[in-house]
Write a structure and sequence with these properties.
- The chain is mainly α.
- Helices cover 75% and strands 0% of the residues.
- The chain has helices at residues 12-36, 51-74, 79-104, 109-135.
Length: 136
Amino acid sequence: MENYGMSEGFWTEPIIILLFTILLVGIIPAIFRYKMGADKKKWFSYNHINKLHKKIDWTLRIIYLISIIVSAIFFYTKPLLISIILAVFVLSQIIVQAFIEWKFSENRKNFKVSLIQLGLTLITLVGVFFWIKYYF
């Protein structure tokens, strides 16, 4: 049976990276949120603090959606560019979340956890990009 250029342990590394990503971006911030006494967030929800936050968040989403569509059309031979745009989108959403929490949230610990989440997400993204560059 042919494996079409995939090494024998091809799926091992992506699974390990996925598990570390879940740990760094999902579980560790949740632990910090609990230990620091920050407000609990619902998984896969928008968690808008106020109307300004909702407006900025949706503006970012529209801008990045247009950016991804345009880059997919004009730069389809450079998939790393689309990945970088998605990474910038994720990071900018967390930055906006942290700023809005710092400025408007009643619980001051919320923005600290968002900053921790920002750092862990940045570390994860850099690690994944280095892995992609090294592996492929």
